[in-house]
Write a structure and sequence with these properties.
- With 145 residues, this protein is mainly alpha-helical.
- It has one domain: 3-Layer(aba) Sandwich (Rossmann fold).
- The protein has 7 helices and 5 strands; from the N terminus they run E-H-H-E-H-H-E-H-H-E-E-H.
- It has helices at residues 8-15, 22-33, 44-57, 60-72, 81-93, 99-110, 137-141, and strands spanning 5-6, 39-42, 74-77, 115-117, 130-132.
- The protein has a 3-stranded parallel sheet with strand order 1-4-5. Strands 2-3 form a two-stranded parallel ribbon.
- Helix 3 packs antiparallel against helix 4 and helix 5 crosses helix 6 (99-110).
- It is globular and about 35 Å long.
Length: 145
Amino acid sequence: MRRFLYDTNVFVYALGGEHPMRAPCRAILARAERGELRGEASADLVQELAHQRYRQTGDRMAACRSARQAARACVLHALEPGDALRGLELFEQNPRLTGRDASFAAVAIGRGIDAILSADRDFDRLPGLERFDPADEAAVASLAF
């Protein structure tokens, strides 16, 4: 099994409305529920997902339930001061990365995780982190137990 970091968009697409990424992301979460995948995440993913779900649905309680469910599917890592500083460096050096994505990448790199499961191609040019597309079944299978 290869260690990987979840990007929030895997959960957002799985829980959201119709979208080409919805079915592949739902399949990933089903594999996680069966114990076939055990990804890791920045603890910030929980807050970001709750915020995103609340914005989409207006249902605060459901947003919190979704975020808690995502938290149970991951090994969560705290954002440490060194991660925040590394994230700033990544943000400065990679104009396509958002601040949040740079922070997630810094958490992964700081924990020795060299893979991220994300639909976001902005991670593609980031040295030290290989992006796995949720729609690529073979790539996802390579992350499984």
